[in-house]
Amino acid sequence: MEAASTIAEVRERVGAWRREGKSVGLVPTMGYLHEGHQSLIERAAAECDRVVVSVFVNPTQFGPGEDLESYPRDFERDLAKCEAAGAALVFHPTPEEMYWPDRSTTIHMADISEELCGKSRPVHFDGVCLVVAKLFNIVTPDAAYFGEKDAQQLLVVRRMVRDLNFPLRIVGCPIVREADGLAKSSRNTYLSPDERLAATVLSRAIRAGQALAESGERDASAIRGAVRDVLVQEPLADVEYVEVVSQETVRPVQRIESPVLCAIAVRIGTTRLIDNFFYDPAA
Amino acid sequence: MEAASTIAEVRERVGAWRREGKSVGLVPTMGYLHEGHQSLIERAAAECDRVVVSVFVNPTQFGPGEDLESYPRDFERDLAKCEAAGAALVFHPTPEEMYWPDRSTTIHMADISEELCGKSRPVHFDGVCLVVAKLFNIVTPDAAYFGEKDAQQLLVVRRMVRDLNFPLRIVGCPIVREADGLAKSSRNTYLSPDERLAATVLSRAIRAGQALAESGERDASAIRGAVRDVLVQEPLADVEYVEVVSQETVRPVQRIESPVLCAIAVRIGTTRLIDNFFYDPAA
Lengths: 283, 283
Fold this sequence. Notes:
The structure is a homodimer of 283-residue chains. By secondary structure, chain A is α/β, with parallel strands linked by helices. Chain A is built from ten helices and ten strands.
């Protein structure tokens, strides 16, 4: 496995693979990798000849007062995990390599970025779109792999790829969980031992909502109520949102008649955690 | 030469060329081709194995009250000109093929889109960026060819390519003029015979400004004054702007100390025409 910190190095490496007729997969990450990321890399390695993992804490997707500075970083450990999962190249640029001081191009995602996390993180998805578009153009992959954990991000990236005609496939991969159900997240490291115990309430709430949907409940408010009933039992949990939205429009639905996403955001202490399930009533 | 109206056909054709190791050039146009476009196609054919010409009157780059509906169209004549100039494929999609009804992704160009034409056409360059980004992703060319006649568009596209890391070269090509100096433009067809005569004032004004710059004048207001002095002699000419801007920032300069663009926009009757010259004091 190799590592590259410049765009030129990545292009040279990928260009050489292309001349050999190799297919290329991309796994964009912000580093501090966990088993969720590893599952993306393993999936990419199973489907593509060569896998590029980007490790870049992207400043444009953090809003004022968010955790850009404190976001956890451990590049040496990330390298070992990438290699173990089957990556061929790790791209770890500096912010200066990625962004010109006089950059003037932005990408805006309307509509589907406005609900859920978009409400409390108004610049987040535009920043995601910008860095993902750049990575697509730098790596020119055949496929890019994103976790379903960041469900709205996955839907936003799919929409950008569709609207701008990026010539690649987006592959969504299932949430990877701890033994007690907590969705793997780099931000779990922020949790104190008490908060770590309390954080299991998210996955218990999600399971309750999912069970109700699978039992045939089609009233979205009943699903939201069931999820909320679990969350409010945890004194350390401060609920930001519990929503059932259309997978297509990312707008709240009354009745579940087409594929939906049930998504929650909850603060445990000062740490903001998210979890979700996708549900298709026709499946 | 072939013609394609769907994105899938273009991808199939370009994919086949790629497998044969061919390089690909793209010439994006709005059709109603003239010798200016033909010079772009010929340049692309000289530098690339295969040339794709897109013919698409892009609705997203027209503002309310602009000439989207009346913009001249003659696809059969365009096909003949493309073939004569050496194109291998003409891509002529419908608006429905290019834009999803629920599209939610936009590209915004700040700063360098705000002066010159950006003042009177506030949505124009965002629309140009959107369609050009889509064409880049559909055709995946090695190089794309743009006329210097649309000077701000050329600078905007270069900036977008730089900021979003599109993996291709942008080639700017010189203005092609009628025998009497008028810059070739599809919109010249709007001019009545009297207006057509009056329209020569643009190129005479540009020549006056260029001669002054080449004689060593470094005061931008003197250049603007010389250009304006010519324009005001034509009673049918209504000046929208005469500006000398930095090629890098597209902001007005006082003194010419780095590469500049001197650009003008003038209405002759109801027809809006533009012209310009690039000048580098170090060249």
